[in-house]
Specification:
It contains 3 helices and 11 strands, in the order αββββαβββββββα. With about 240 residues, the chain is mainly beta.
C-alpha cells in the first residue's frame, strides 16, 4: 500500500536495501499496517479552573476555589456517568490537537494550553476495544471561559474538587502505597461524585507510579485516577 507520509526522505536511513532487496519505497508498498490487531488511541483532558475567594485577585494558589470540568456521557460505555472530555484521535491528527478538539467539541472551551501528564493503557480499561489514552492537563480562570455541552456529551459542568490523601504505607515488594479520597461537587445540580484511588510507588531514581480506581460512584472508566494524578501534579506546583 502507499506510504502513510508523502515525504519519506527523512526515513531512508543509510540508503541501503533490506534483506529482501527492497528500498524504502518498495518496502512501504508491500507493508501492511493491519497485519496485527492494533490498539485504538484516545485523549482525555483534565481541565482545572480556579477562582479567588477574596476581592483582590492573587492568581491561582492553594487557597483558591478549584474545580474540574466534567461531561456526562450520552452513549455507551458508562452512559449517564460523568467523565473527562475526550475521544478518539483522527488518523492524521497530533495528540495535543485531539485533546484540544475534543475539549472544544464537548464543552465549548477552546484554545487552552495542554500539558501531557500520563498515558493510561491497562488492557481492561474499555469494553469496546484495546484503548490507550493520553491524558492532558490545563488550568484556566473560571470567568475566562463559557461551558456548554456538545457532541456526544449531554451535559458539561464545573465540579468543585476535594481530594484527601492518606498516609504512605510500606508494602512487601519494597514499594509504598496510599489512598486518595476524591469528591467532586456541583451544589447547584445536587451532584456529588466520589471515588477511592490507590497510588502505588516503586523505586527512587526510576519510579513506577500507578494510580488505580478502587471504588467509584458515577465517575466513568479510570477517569478518577487521571483526575487524582493531575491534581497531585497541580498541587505540587502551587
Amino acid at each position: 500500500m502507499a506510504a502513510f507520509l508523502e515525504n519519506i526522505a527523512p526515513f531512508t536511513g543509510n540508503g541501503k536495501k533490506n534483506d529482501k532487496g527492497q528500498d524504502l519505497e518498495e518496502f512501504l508498498e508491500e507493508y501492511d499496517p493491519y497485519k496485527y490487531k492494533n490498539p485504538c488511541v484516545t485523549t482525555d483532558a483534565v481541565v482545572f479552573s480556579w477562582s479567588d475567594k477574596g476581592v483582590e485577585s492573587k492568581g491561582p494558589n492553594l487557597d483558591s476555589v478549584w474545580k474540574v470540568l466534567m461531561i456526562r456521557r450520552g452513549n455507551h460505555p458508562c452512559i449517564g456517568w460523568w467523565a473527562l472530555p475526550g475521544g478518539f484521535i483522527n488518523l492524521r491528527e497530533n495528540l495535543r490537537d485531539t485533546a484540544k478538539r475534543e475539549l472544544m467539541e464537548e464543552t465549548g472551551v477552546d484554545d487552552l494550553p495542554m500539558e501531557q501528564i500520563a498515558v493510561y493503557g491497562n488492557a481492561n480499561r474499555d469494553p469496546r476495544a484495546r484503548v490507550i489514552t493520553s491524558a492532558y492537563m490545563s488550568v484556566v480562570e473560571e470567568t475566562k471561559v463559557t461551558v456548554h455541552a456538545g457532541d456526544d456529551a449531554d451535559a458539561a459542568l464545573w465540579c468543585e474538587i476535594y481530594c484527601e490523601s492518606g498516609a504512605w504505607e510500606n508494602v512487601e515488594d519494597g514499594g509504598r502505597k496510599r489512598s486518595h479520597f476524591l469528591r467532586l461537587e456541583n451544589k447547584a445540580y445536587e451532584l456529588e461524585l466520589t471515588a477511592v484511588v490507590e497510588e502505588d510507588l516503586k523505586g527512587d531514581i526510576v519510579q513506577e507510579r500507578d494510580f488505580q480506581v478502587m471504588d467509584t460512584n458515577q465517575i466513568a472508566c479510570d477517569h478518577a485516577a487521571i483526575i487524582v494524578q493531575a491534581w497531585q501534579i497541580l498541587k505540587s506546583r502551587l
